[in-house]
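quick one, 184 residues, struct below
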Amino acid sequence: MKIARAIFLDRDGVINVNLVDNVRTWEQFVFETGALDALARLAAADFRLLVITNQAGIGLGQMTHATVEEIHARMIQEIGRAGGRIDGVYICPHTRQDQCSCRKPSPELLLRARDDFSLDLARSYFIGDWVADVGAARNAGVTPLLVRTGRGEDAVVEMRARGIEMAEVLQNFGAAVDWILERE
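---
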């Protein structure tokens, strides 16, 4: 059996516009500029495409798990209409205060995906817009890419201030896809 590679994707700030108070309904969900095109280009590549997302709004009572599942179903449907695909979505519904084992920067959700899809994490990538995305990638042995959309600009400042080794920083999701495809 061939071991697959993956491109892990944060949701808010990479696929869709990040909202300070969380995306709580489908009506608030707006694709980042170029995200649908980037996903369509990735659909032809030899990668599993997996969303890894902290959704603390569930734990905060801002929305239900069912609402988040509906948002993801509609997101996947729209991505499919644009020629892309998502092979799986992994969420952490907890708040930071819950101190769970699945919230990024924990690698747990990536490890679950590894087991579900027989993934080679060392040959995989994680595109995110926050320090926790970079941490989860590194904690799982995945190559992290940081985009400047969403909270990406703040993440660069935060990483420098905390002395965290910088990930490859790219303008947006499309530029991250270009970076990956040029190396593969």
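Residues 6-183 form a domain with the Rossmann fold fold (CATH 3.40.50.1000).
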